Amino acid sequence: MKTGRKNNNSGFSLVELIIVIAIMAVLVGVMATSITSLTGRRVRKCADEIVTTLERTRVLTLGKEQNQVECVISYNDTT
Fold this sequence. Notes:
Blueprint lengths: L13 H49 L17
């Protein structure tokens, strides 16, 4: 027995949309945390390399006479 209404299911329900938005929010949160921790590690590594270079330069400078110059070149390509 047919009534006068059409059964039109060509869309998403409100519950489905809310679930999809919640899943996307969780994924974006996890990705943001991962990116932040990776960037933090890189910054920390770069800062450690700068400190090491400055300490090495200080030791070399304090151990030399005024008239001598020493040039140290190091190639550390770890990127």
